[in-house]
Amino acid sequence: MSRIQTRENVFKLIYERVIRDEKNPHSFEVVFNAISGNDKEYFIAAYNGIDETYEFLKKVIERFSIDFKISRLNKVDLSILLVAAYEILFMDEIGVSISANEAVELAKKFSNEDSSKFINGVLASVIENKELLIVEFNTKEEIKEEENEEDECENN
Questions:
Q1: pTM of the shown model
Q2: Contact, 127 vs 100, CB < 8 A?
Q3: Which long-range contacts (CB under 8 A, 24 or more apart) does 69-78 make?
Q4: Residue 151's domain is classified under what CATH number?
Q5: 122: buried, middle or exposed (CB in 10 Å: 19+, 13-18, 0-12)?
Q6: Which of 13, 84, 136, 156 could be a cystine partner for 103, CB 3.0 to 4.6 Å?
Q7: What local confidence, expressed as pLDDT, does residue 112 receive?
Q8: pLDDT confidence of 26, banded at 50, 70, 90?
Q9: How many domains does the structure of the chain reveal?
């Protein structure tokens, strides 16, 4: 299985997560068992990473989806954007242009021509603001860790 096919499988599982509003361990296992070699590492990292950063990624997508609330986005387009935005922001080993181009190809295959243009525009904004978004994410994570430490101290 190629990286393109593996990315497509991640997209399909993320689409299922968007529709169901929860992960499906059975689907994950079926797809994971069909993947071989180095693509397993990408698959696990991307799928779990998207799940761990899901709410942050949705806010990023909504921020750059001018005039569209996340609830109004086509679920296929949202799923494609989640995969690509995660790759762009958190998977430095994948070039940003590769992530954006593959997202556009997924949109052409699973959505429509207008969607591919929309996705390209949103991802261009994510790429342009990548460093700021990473700082924003890390700051939020530090605040969460501090709050968790304070909660632990209060509970002891």
A1: 0.88
A2: yes
A3: 74/111, 74/115, 75/15, 75/18, 75/19, 76/15, 76/107, 76/110, 76/111, 76/115, 77/107, 77/111, 77/115, 77/118, 77/119, 78/18
A4: 1.10.940.10
A5: buried
A6: 84
A7: 84
A8: confident
A9: 1
Scanning the chain, the segments in alpha helix (DSSP H) are 3-20, 25-34, 39-52, 54-64, 75-90, 96-110, 113-128, 130-155
For 104-130, write each residue's pLDDT tens digit: 999 999 998 789 999 999 999 999 999
Query: Which of 48, 65, 53 minimizes the C-alpha distance to 13?
Result: 48
Crossing angle of helices 75-90 and 130-155, in 10° steps, is 90
> Which residue has 């990292």 as its token pair?
45
Q: Tens of pLDDT along 125-147?
A: 999 999 999 999 888 776 666 56
* Side chain identity at residue 132, one-letter code: L
N-terminal to C-terminal alpha carbon distance within the chain: 50
Structural domain that includes position 128: 3-155
Angstrom distances, CA of residue 83 to CA of 63, 88, 90, 107, 126: 16, 9, 11, 12, 12
For residues 128 and 119, give the distance between their C-alpha atoms in angstroms, rounded to a whole number. 14
